[in-house]
From TrEMBL:
Name this polypeptide is given: Carbohydrate kinase PfkB domain-containing protein
Pfam families: PfkB (PF00294)
Domain Carbohydrate kinase PfkB, first and last residues per copy: 16-277
Keyword Coiled coil: no
UniProt key word Kinase: yes
Domain of life according to the entry: Bacteria
Amino acid sequence: MKKQTLCCIGHITLDKVVTPQSTVYMPGGTAYYCSYAMRHLNNTDYRLVTAVGESELNVVERMRNAGINVTALPSKHSVYFENIYGENQNDRTQRVLAKADPFTSQYLKEIEADIYHLGSLLADDFPVDVIRHLAGKGLVAVDSQGYLREVRNTRVYPVDWPEKKEALKYVHFLKVNEHEMEVLTGYDSVTEAARKLYEWGVKEVLLTFGSMGSVIFDGKTFHQIPAYEPAVITDATGCGDTYTIGYLYQRAAGASIEEAGHFAAAMSTLKIEKSGPFCGTEADILHCMRHAKEILPCFSL
């Protein structure tokens, strides 16, 4: 199988979103948002590896028809999230009605890439031996959110990552938000949390804070990346995934940490302005970087 520059591995979800006004079914997940975002960037040397049940093979076919390079592994079920919202949008009940099979080293042995981005949705998606296996072939990127969500009888519970110290030895890029960094490290300080994650083995720690920007730590320098003010806030779903894939895309192309961080921030700003995955162009991203108002992180480092 041809070696890719960038490969995202993760489940595509079936999301059931229930509000007082309607019930909507839609695909989602890190793999979905990353793949559609990459479709709009100039470098197409990208592959998605996913595992879905038969019911979601139509989603895979639509992605292929859109020009996305997809390898679909068999799974008894697809991941099925149910999100029920009350009148207050902050009042959400989340359940997982079905889970896909975890990824295994055996399934991934033929997949070759320079960078593997693991889009974990639930704690058991990627066992440590999978991370170790992929790290022997390329650089591994991980979004921590899935490792901190455990399903018990369909309900989703926040948890720590029991194998984090073993796993993070093999992770080059780790993306966390302010809540996740505190759960993982016990620190609410940006500098202390970043240093602890670096100490555990992560080479580039991406700490994202939404509208307050982001900080990237490489063991020597804390790179403060501004957020760009959106023209309108429409849909924040997938913004973290968009940031991460934009950053990895730029790093794979040889950009510096600062350059990649600014690109990722602008890309996620454009995503929040519209519903669904990022659908802009690189020209749009560069225009945002030049003209949108910068909001600098307000952390004392």
